[in-house]
Each structure stands twice: as C-alpha cells, then as structure tokens.
C-alpha cells in the first residue's frame, strides 16, 4: 500500500466530513443564492485542506465558479481537473442520510463525492511535499446540470492550456469503473410553417405543417442506426390549433447521440440541410452539435492504463466503461485534449432518488487521483 493511500485511510473520517459539508450545502443549479453558499463551502475546504491560489469567477445568473491552483510547475502545460458543484435536486427534495456505509443525498454521486476526493487527493500530495513540474488547476463550475452555458468558454479556455484533463464525475454505477468513452450530443429544433385554412371549406388550398412534420420525422428517423451507435429521439412535438383547421405551424425537439466526430459532422449536415416534402410548407432546422464525443483514443487509454496499474498496487481491479450521457469532459475531449472521466467515488443513482456513494473506499478513490497527478507531473 502506498504512503498516500495509508495517509488517506487514516483521514477517512475527515474525508467523509468534507463530503457531508458539501452535500448539506444543497445547490440546485438554478438557485444562485444556495449554490453560492455551497461554493463558499468548497472554497473554504480548498483553503483549509490545500491552500493554493483561489480565483472566483463571478456569475450573475448561476453560482460563482472557482479556479483553484495547486503548485507552480515549470512545464507550460498544466493538468486540469474539472468538476461541478450544482445538482439536479431542489432543496429538500431528497433526504441526506448515512446507512449501511453509504451516504445518500443530493449530489453525493454526481458529483460532490468527486469534489471531496479531489480535494483530499491534493491535500495528500501537499502533505508529502509533492509539487510536480505541472501545476494543477481544479476548475469547479456551477451549471453543468443545465448545459454549462455559463462555463463552457471557461472550461475550453483552461483545457487549451492543459496537457490532460481529469474529470471526477460519477463513475460507472456499482463497479466504480472510469469512463473512457462518452457519446456526443446534438440538440435540434425543427420548425415547420404551413398554410392554415378551414379543414372543411377548401382543405386543399392549405398546407398542413403537421403533415409535413410527420414526413420530416420519418425522414429524420431513417438516420437512426443502432449498430453505428447513432440514436435520434424526437422528444417533443407540438403544433396545430383545432381539429377543423389545417395546421399552420408545428415543431419538434430532437436529441441526437453519436460515437465519433466524423458522424457528428455528417449527421449535423443531414439534419440542417432540409427541404419540405409538401408544397406550400417551409421547414427550418435550428440547433446543432452541442458536445463532441469523448472518444477512446490512444492517449485516453494510456491514462486508463496508468490508473489500472495504480489501482492494482492498491489491490483493486479498475475497469473502464462508457456512457451515453455527456459531461463537461466531452468539451475538453472535443478540443482534442486527452480526457479521462468518471474518476469519482463508487456509488449509484445519479439523478435518482437513491443517489449515494460508498464511504469505505473514498480514500482509495482519492489516492487514485493523487497518484495519477503525481505520475503525470513529475
Ligand atoms: Zn455531473
């Protein structure tokens, strides 16, 4: 067992305490007052445990965001760790409780557990005087659960200065496997304008936006391809006014998922390039690719191999897995920066009422991150 892991095991109680404090400061993405309070808890934890440079990025619409820096480093490229402290839960929506060695509560798994183990990973490195050649920037944002609109530019700016990115997001449920692949996502809105007329008097002089929408949907769904990992979900449709009126307007919201950047470009093109089937209607597709996939590149697999070796030395088997859901890791991976995701603790129930983390191996998960930093910054 490494010195780092022994140290972290000896601090099990305090690691749990750090996590509990973060969870108790509930932080629904859309409540700036509450999220800011949680941000302060995070800031204090960093100052007490690690004590590096703290920069606050003030935000008006969402909680303030934080850039914590550990070490000075002589290498120009930094190691970037990204996380978010907002959760999907309204205040009081699910209870916080400890049971059977697990901590249940809002954001325990997604991803305050990941924030707590990262803080303790840095604390352990500091304790042993490890300041590597690369400085470590721990960037924590406040709007990941609502699309990262207010943090995307910041994340991308930091990623461009980085050699690699670690994302202590929730791991694969139960197994704790890290994520070496995430699908990309596109968000589109299809708008159809028709010509509204009386459905009885002279229906053929009109042009139904709903009929056109139905044809468009059938056409769009033909791009869905399970084998290629491409899925298209028409999530909502609406349109028309009354049964006796030919619909003048209809629209649909579309969610696209894909495996590769090449697919993304092809699909985006196919979706945006629309013409109408029915004379007299007009179609307009809005939106586009929101996040590129986190692809399983050689450099991502290299990071996974390192983690696997570190885990083995601690007596753990560390698996890898993939997710159909996107995270901010997709943003950094989309820029071509090697990104490994799902480094948070073992647990289950992200966005679900049984959300929890397993407390027993928090020290091990913190040690994984600490030693991964150590290896890559010396
Ligand atoms: Zn998350």
Automatic annotation (TrEMBL):
CDD domains, A to Z: M20_CPDG2 (cd03885)
GO MF annotations, alphabetized: hydrolase activity; metal ion binding
InterPro entries: Bact_exopeptidase_dim_dom (IPR036264), Pept_M20_glutamate_carboxypep (IPR017150), Peptidase_M20 (IPR002933), Peptidase_M20_dimer (IPR011650), Peptidase_M20A (IPR050072)
Keyword Oxidoreductase: no
Keyword Metal-binding: yes
Domain Peptidase M20 dimerisation, residue spans: 182-273
Signal peptide stretch: none
Residues of the active site: 86, 144 (proton acceptor)
Taxonomic superkingdom: Bacteria
Keywords in alphabetical order: Hydrolase, Metal-binding
Protein's name according to its UniProt entry: M20 family metallopeptidase
Species classification: Bacteria, Bacillati, Bacillota, Bacilli, Bacillales
């Amino acid at each position: 067992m490494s010195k780092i892991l022994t140290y972290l095991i000896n601090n099990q109680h305090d690691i749990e305490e750090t996590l509990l404090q973060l969870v108790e400061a509930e932080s629904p993405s859309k409540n700036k007052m509450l999220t800011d309070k949680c941000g302060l808890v995070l800031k204090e934890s960093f100052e007490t445990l690690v004590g590096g440079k703290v920069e606050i990025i003030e935000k008006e619409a969402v909680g303030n965001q934080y850039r914590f820096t550990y070490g000075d480093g002589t290498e120009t490229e930094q190691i970037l760790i990204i996380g978010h402290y907002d959760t999907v839960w309204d205040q009081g929506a699910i209870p916080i409780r400890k049971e059977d060695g697990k901590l249940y509560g809002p954001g325990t798994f997604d991803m305050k557990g990941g924030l707590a183990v990262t803080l303790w990973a840095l604390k352990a490195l500091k304790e042993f005087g490890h300041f590597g050649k690369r400085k470590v920037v721990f960037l924590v944002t406040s709007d990941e659960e609502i699309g990262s609109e207010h943090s995307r530019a910041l994340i991308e700016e930091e990623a461009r200065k980085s050699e690699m990115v670690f994302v202590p997001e929730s791991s694969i449920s139960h197994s704790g496997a890290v994520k070496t692949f995430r699908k990309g996502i596109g968000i589109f809105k299809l708008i159809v304008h028709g010509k509204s007329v009386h459905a009885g008097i002279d229906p053929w002089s009109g042009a139904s936006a709903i009929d056109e929408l139905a044809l468009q949907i059938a056409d769009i769904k033909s791009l869905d391809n399970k084998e290629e990992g491409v899925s298209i979900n028409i999530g909502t449709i609406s349109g028309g006014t009354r049964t006796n009126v030919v619909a003048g307007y209809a629209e649909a919201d579309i969610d696209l998922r894909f495996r590769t950047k090449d697919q993304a470009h092809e699909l985006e093109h196919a979706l945006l390039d629309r013409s109408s089937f029915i004379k007299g209607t007009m179609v307009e597709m809005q939106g586009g690719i929101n996040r590129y996939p986190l692809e399983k590149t050689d450099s991502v697999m290299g990071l996974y191999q390192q983690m696997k070796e570190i885990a083995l030395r601690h007596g753990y088997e560390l698996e890898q897995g993939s997710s159909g859901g996107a995270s901010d890791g997709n943003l950094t991976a989309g820029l071509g920066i090697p990104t490994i995701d799902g480094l948070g603790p073992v647990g289950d129930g992200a966005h679900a009422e049984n959300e929890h983390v397993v407390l027993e191996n928090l020290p091990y998960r913190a040690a994984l991150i600490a030693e991964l930093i150590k290896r890559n910054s010396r």
